[in-house]
Amino acid sequence: MKLNHLNLTVTDVSASRDFLEKYFDMKCVGSRGNGFAVMFDDEGFVLTLMKGKNVQYPGTFHIGFPQENEDQVDKINQRLKEDGYEVKPPQQAHAYTFYVKAPGGFTVEVFT
pTM to 2 decimals? Predict the structure, then answer.
C-alpha cells in the first residue's frame, strides 16, 4: 500500500507554498486564494496546504525530505541559512540530518 497524500494545516498558505517550491522542488498545481493549495512532488505524492488559525503541531511532528547524499543536505542547509532561517548544522543521528521551522507553523527534516 502506498501513501497518496497528506493535508497540512498552516498559518500562511502562500509562504508555506513558496518555501516548499523554493527549497524542495514541490510544484503547486492548484490553489484557492490564500486558503488552500495542492502541491506535488516528482513522484506523485500530493501535499495539500489548508489555512488554519491556531496551528500547533506536537513538538515531534515533522515532514521529511530525503536527499541523495550529505552534500545535498549541506547545500540545502546553507541556502536556508543564507536566506535567514535559523538552522543548526547537519549532524549524524539516525541519519545525516537537520530540522527547520517552515513558514506556516510546521517543521521540516532534511536528511540522507
Answer: 0.94
pLDDT in tens, 55-67: 999 999 999 999 9
User: Based on the number of CB atoms within 10 Å of its own CB, is 10 exposed (0-12), middle (13-18) or buried (19 or more)?
Assistant: buried
Q: Which CATH architecture has domain 5-52+62-111?
A: Roll (3.10)
Distances in Å between the Cα of 41 and the Cα atoms of 46, 47, 57, 88, 111 are 7, 8, 23, 25, 17
Rounded CA gap, 6 and 21, in Å?
Answer: 16
Q: Give the pLDDT score at 2.
A: 87
